[in-house]
Structures are given as C-alpha cells and as structure tokens.
C-alpha cells in the first residue's frame, strides 16, 4: 500500500488516519504543534507548513499527500507537488482558500450566491455597505474558520456599521483581503459532502442539515428531509464544482436555503465537520472514501444506514455515559485539551427510523443538559 501524508494534524487528520488503518495504509501527519491530536494515533512530523526541512522529512516518508488544513501556503503545496503526488490539486486549493475566487467560480458555474463585494479599503467598504445594505457580514477572504475573522453589520448599527466593521477587521486587509456579503435570512443551512475519484467517479452522501451557533457548527442531521428536487439541485451544484475543479478527494459545499432557493456560502476542500456522521451513518465514511480517492482506490458506497445526528462538543468533553447508553450512540473524543470554544469531540446517534433517533436525542439532551443544542434537531425530526 502507498503511504499517506496529511498536512495538518488535527481531528480531521486523526479520523482519516483511523479510517486508513484497516486499509493497511501507513499515515504520517505534519503539524506545527507537537501536541496535535493526530499525533496520538500516527507519527507526527513537527514543523511549520513552510519549514523546508520538515517538508523534506515529510515528503521522504509518504507517497501521496493530502490536507487536514487547507490554508497551507501555496509555495509549500507547489514544492510538495514536485516531490510526491498531492490531492486535491493546486487549483482547487487556491480557489477554496479565497472566499472571493470561490464565490466567483460558483457564479461562473451558475450556482447562485449571496450578494458580495471585494473590499480593499475603507471607502470600498462604505460603498459596498450602501449597495448591499444591512444586515451584512464582513469576512476575511482567507484564513477564516469556525466563524473567526467575521464581523456582522446589524441594522441597529445604522450609519456607523461600516466604521465599526472596518475597526474590527480593517487591519487585516493587506494580510487576508476582505469580502462583504449580504446576510441571508435563511430558512435552514445544508451541506453536500461529496467525493470524486481520480477517474471521475462522483458520489455524495445524503445532503445534511446543519445548525450553527455563533458561526460554529453545533448539530448535523442526515438525511435532511429535503424536497427531492431541492436535493437534486444541491447535488448538481456539488457535481459541477467537482468537475470544474477536476477535484480528487472529499469536499463539502455549504449552502443556505431560503424560500426554495439555494445560495452557496463556501466550499471546504477536505473532509468536513458536517460529514462526521458518515463514520457510523453510512456504508463508507467520508474519511475512508477520501483516503481511497487520493490513493487511487475504488470508492465505497455512500449510502446512508438509517438516520444520524451529530452533536459537536465545544470547550470540554461532556460525560460520555448518556450517549454510550443509547443503542446507536457513538463517542469521539479527539484527545485535545479543554479550551473555550475549541472543537474537542463529537457524538453521533444513529437509528433505523427518525422516531427512534428523536428518542435517543431527547434522552441525551436531557441527561447532558443540552436542551438548546438538541431542540432544533428534535423539532425537525418530529415536525
Ligand atoms: P467553517 O469553515 O467552520 O464552516 P467559516 O469561518 O468559514 O466556518 P462561514 O461558513 O462563512 O464561516 O460562516 C459560518 C456560519 O455563519 C455559517 O454557517 C452561517 O451560519 C453564518 N453565516 C455566514 N455567512 C452568512 C451569510 N452571508 N448570511 C447568513 N449567515 C451567514
Ligand atoms: Mg469555512
Ligand atoms: Mg462554513
């Protein structure tokens, strides 16, 4: 078996490595931190993403490289590509690293997007706020994740909104670029997690309904209970994107749905938090299919196994017992130290019917005192 290298050693790398093990694929991860949680399950090369000595050591130990972290500097990606195979390719990575190029590509492909404007100075922001209106969101073009690097311009801020947004993020303009987006008062959010093989085999898991709190994913539900036409449209968008980028591996397309319309928010050129439920809730998980795709192996079925709900654990791990007591309860502790707002683990509840899933979820929510986290999912399952 070829050896797999992962740039980034967080929980995504850790779950990829756990999926690679039964395939007999040896994995090495590169991460700037010696504490990176993938290091508990695979050997870690400790070094920065632009540290040539670390990249050389990493390249010497792997045949194919992929990403847990997409913001690896382009120069390092290029250097690696001249030494080992790397998937996804440079075009996909460059596009997905930049919210502006990502949105332009979506539009070119006929995938609707919220109103947006490139912001390169204070005046450009003032003009864009006049044009797009309030509410809107100012975001860094690059390097944002989990809602970081964003400022919401609220209607009650009135004429001071642009100034307040510039005060919050203007200092980033040279480093990351900025983009203003119209705020979409969506009915719900969904994502399509998809995989494409080197020979163009394209598959998606059941589109997933997602709930965020303060810009961070809180819960996911699959299947999402979508109208079949809407579901087909969402999958069509993901397919066009994959083909346009000649994509190899797993990616996620995040969408807002409003009045039956789908608007693309962003894509992630990697396995995705909203696909964690596939570990127990699908015939082949996103992690296994990503490993298969980048190594050139046949893809596995993405069929769902009943109904699944994933709950993210932020800050610190709760008591596992109430989840483990459920018939389809599964626990994932990433082995990270507790820190405010940090993703430290997740649970997946799986059941054969929506009714059984709701019962499990309600029991877990009550036992862990997580009523707010489970309430919207229960409402969807029972509504
Ligand atoms: P991640 O990569 O972790 O998904 P991120 O930092 O890239 O997050 P976004 O996906 O852009 O951030 O935004 C996080 C969440 O904030 C979205 O899932 C959505 O709930 C909300 N949000 C972002 N942009 C908009 C928008 N234009 N309209 C309405 N809500 C938005
Ligand atoms: Mg993002
Ligand atoms: Mg997002």
TrEMBL record:
Domain ATP-grasp: 103-295
GO MF annotation list: 5-(carboxyamino)imidazole ribonucleotide synthase activity; ATP binding; metal ion binding; phosphoribosylaminoimidazole carboxylase activity
Positions bound to ATP: 99, 139, 144-150, 181-184, 189, 212, 265-266
Keywords (A to Z) from UniProt: ATP-binding, Ligase, Nucleotide-binding, Purine biosynthesis, Signal
Segment forming the signal sequence: 1-19
Biological process (GO), any one: 'de novo' IMP biosynthetic process
Catalytic reactions on record: 5-amino-1-(5-phospho-beta-D-ribosyl)imidazole + hydrogencarbonate + ATP = 5-carboxyamino-1-(5-phospho-D-ribosyl)imidazole + ADP + phosphate + 2 H(+)
GO cellular component: cytosol
EC number(s) on file: 6.3.4.18
Top-rank EC class of the record's enzyme: ligase
Pathway terms, separated by semicolons: Purine metabolism; IMP biosynthesis via de novo pathway; 5-amino-1-(5-phospho-D-ribosyl)imidazole-4-carboxylate from 5-amino-1-(5-phospho-D-ribosyl)imidazole (N5-CAIR route): step 1/2
Superkingdom classification of source: Bacteria
Family stated for the protein in its record: Belongs to the PurK/PurT family.
PANTHER family: PHOSPHORIBOSYLAMINOIMIDAZOLE CARBOXYLASE (PTHR11609:SF5), PURINE BIOSYNTHESIS PROTEIN 6/7, PUR6/7 (PTHR11609)
Binding partners and assembly: Homodimer.
Function as written in the Swiss-Prot or TrEMBL entry: Catalyzes the ATP-dependent conversion of 5-aminoimidazole ribonucleotide (AIR) and HCO(3)- to N5-carboxyaminoimidazole ribonucleotide (N5-CAIR). Catalyzes the ATP-dependent conversion of 5-aminoimidazole ribonucleotide (AIR) and HCO(3)(-) to N5-carboxyaminoimidazole ribonucleotide (N5-CAIR).
Protein name from the UniProt record: N5-carboxyaminoimidazole ribonucleotide synthase
Record organism: Lysobacter defluvii IMMIB APB-9 = DSM 18482
Lineage, top ranks: Bacteria, Pseudomonadati, Pseudomonadota, Gammaproteobacteria, Lysobacterales
């Amino acid at each position: 078996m070829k050896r797999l290298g992962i740039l980034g050693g967080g929980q995504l790398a850790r779950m990829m490595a756990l999926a690679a093990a039964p395939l007999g694929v040896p994995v090495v991860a590169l991460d700037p931190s010696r504490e990176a949680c993938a290091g508990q399950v695979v050997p870690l090369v400790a070094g920065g993403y632009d540290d040539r000595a670390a990249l050389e050591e990493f390249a010497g130990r792997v045949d194919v490289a992929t990403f847990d972290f997409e913001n690896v500097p382009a120069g390092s990606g290029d250097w690696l590509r001249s030494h080992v195979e790397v998937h996804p390719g440079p075009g996909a990575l460059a596009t997905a690293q930049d919210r502006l190029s990502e949105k332009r590509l979506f539009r070119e492909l006929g995938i609707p997007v919220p109103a947006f404007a490139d912001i390169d100075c204070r005046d450009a922001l003032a003009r864009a706020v006049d044009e797009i209106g309030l509410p809107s969101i100012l975001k860094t073009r690059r390097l944002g994740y989990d809602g970081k690097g964003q400022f919401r311009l609220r209607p009650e801020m009135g004429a001071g909104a642009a100034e307040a947004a510039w005060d919050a993020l203007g200092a980033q303009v040279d480093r990351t670029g900025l983009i203003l987006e119209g705020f979409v008062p969506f009915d719900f959010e969904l994502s399509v997690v998809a995989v494409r093989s080197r020979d163009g085999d394209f598959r998606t898991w059941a589109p997933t309904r997602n709930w965020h709190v303060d810009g961070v994913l809180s819960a996911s539900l699959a299947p999402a209970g979508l109208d079949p036409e809407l579901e087909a449209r969402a999958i069509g968008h993901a397919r066009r994107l994959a083909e346009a980028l000649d994509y190899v591996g797993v990616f996620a397309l995040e969408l807002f749905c409003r009045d039956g319309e789908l608007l693309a928010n962003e894509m992630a050129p990697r396995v995705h938090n909203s696909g964690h439920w596939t570990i127990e809730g699908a015939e082949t998980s996103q992690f296994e299919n990503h490993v298969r795709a980048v190594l050139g192996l046949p893809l596995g079925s993405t069929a769902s196994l009943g109904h699944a709900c994933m709950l993210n654990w932020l800050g610190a791990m709760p008591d596992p017992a109430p989840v483990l007591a459920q018939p389809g309860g599964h626990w994932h502790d990433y082995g990270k130290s507790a820190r405010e707002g940090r993703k430290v683990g997740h649970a997946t509840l799986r059941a054969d019917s929506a009714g059984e899933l709701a019962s499990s979820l309600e029991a877990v929510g009550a036992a862990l005192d997580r009523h707010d986290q489970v309430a919207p999912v229960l409402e969807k399952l029972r509504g």
